[in-house]
Amino acid sequence: GEYPISVDNKSFVVKLLNGVKKTLLKSVDGFGCYSNTTIKLLESYGIEKQKLFLVPQTIDFEYVKKFKKYIALDEPIKIIIVTQVIKRKRIDLIIDYLKRQEVLSKNFEITIVGGGDELENIKNQTLSMPQNIKINFTGKLMFDDVLQTVSDSHFLLFQTMEDIWGYVTNEGLTLGKPIIVSNLAVSSELIKNGYNGFKYNPNDYKEFIDIIKTIEKMDIETYKDMCNNAFNTSEEFHQNRPSEVYRNFINLLNIGE
Fold it and tell me: Omega into 76 within 30° of 0, i.e. cis?
């Protein structure tokens, strides 16, 4: 699985289950892994590295990049959230952080794209926001409309409490948008702080708000560089990953020969 399980937990039951899991895992010939995070987890269970290979978490790069558009950084600073509005995503945390802060002076426009069980609760939560924080809701959109809406924004925010990847990260990068991403999304491994986006602990109010403050003070050239870095990250990822996966898979087939 994608979710880390501590191998250092001292609980007898957990240690017993981990022992069984290790035994079962070691009997498997090969593992297709979504991410380097998963590979590291399996290695911690003693799985041989040559049994592990990456499965491409790719998108239709050529199609998505047709919607790529550079938007100069200006007010309002536009942040888009493309998500299922469900409990696991905890969008309420982001709204709470923005509502509580008293340090932002520029105008921000947050657009939430998507629907889900928590949508009405989130809408109610946004009824009393600071004057300089505007929240928009689009509901569910067709894919092309999502891409267009992301292209019209400055940053893409991927908030989650657990995700085995997060294709929206790939899409945002391909559209040349710096990504603000929860470090509990496995796709956060694509993001380097200050280079093509920012990673944050979703349970840490100060860490999140400090990133928004950094964005507020960002100059035009720094933002433009981050946009270029975002696109270059996606281009490199989608060019190299399929061949890397194929190479690793062939190596797996040769195990034991």
Answer: yes
